[in-house]
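Standup notes
- DV: blocked on the single-chain target, sequence here:
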Amino acid sequence: AAHRPKSSTGGVGLINGGATCYLNALLQILYGTDTFRAQVLAQDLVPERCTGRSILYQLQLLFSFLASSERPAVDTTALTKSFGWGHTEMGIQHDVQELQRVLFAELEKQIQELNTANFLANLYEGQLRDYVTCLHCHCTQERIVGYQDVSLPVKGSRDLQEALRRFTEPELLHGDNQYQCSFCKGKHNARKGLWFRTMPHVLTLHLQLFRYDTATLQRVKIHDRMRVPLTLNPADFISEDSGPEIDPDRNPTPSSQPGHYELTGVLLHAGSAGHGHYTACTRREGQWLQFNDETVSALGLAELQQYLDPTPTLNSDSDPIAPVGLSAPDGLSASATPRRGPANEGGPAEGP
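- DV (later): unblocked, structure below
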């Protein structure tokens, strides 16, 4: 790779260390997220105090190389060593969603040790309202849970908006699964569901492209295609009576119009559940690029739509998977909170 010229796109690839295409694709998605990249590069880290096991420091170094290297591709060995990986781990393909969660958890630990602001929480964290409403007394029990990514069903979803609506669609608890209500002290039918309480600046959506087949006892890929839009309006999947939330750290003056997200990156998977390959499409300075390990190529809008649109004439071998990254442009509201809960029908609310 060192002897080839750098891509004319200006993008720098990542060398595959064995079976690390999934890691390379995720890193390109993260680097292509402007706010995340800026925060990583802005961390005031003293090299003498950072050991080889400092993931944050090694990620900062890697991002510096991606920003300035004249090589066509750079190595991720120092970063994977900071994970504690050896040759064996480099040859194993891990789950991308789980990798991002573990990576973020380790980064948050190291950020806490530095006593600096948790930029990961500021960028990626939102809140869900997990509620159960008794249909006998109409009282609601709820708890607030944080999230950094959202898993969405691909099977049966025509587009991303429908998948998000299905995610928030309440489930009816009835029959043998009736709800033991702590308010009216009886077992009754109930409505249980999740609701978006606040939205993060960067919304990461994991598309459930794999499932476990109980008949064959194997992991199989779902080949259903669903449309992924270039922009996403939270109003499409947040209650109509929701309003913008004022967040002093992230969103002190929300827009009077509902905020929207712009697509910043898509991780693609080609092949089967057992033998597949990951690539990434990210938007860099208004231009879409595709990263296939060491190879970087420009991606026109028509080519991008082959991955995002399920139209048969535009069918592609690669399917979108996690993470689909969407960012809220500066100055637009990226948070929303229900003024009235979707299932709170006049009864008292109780914590978990």
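- Follow-up: The longest helix spans residues 96-113.
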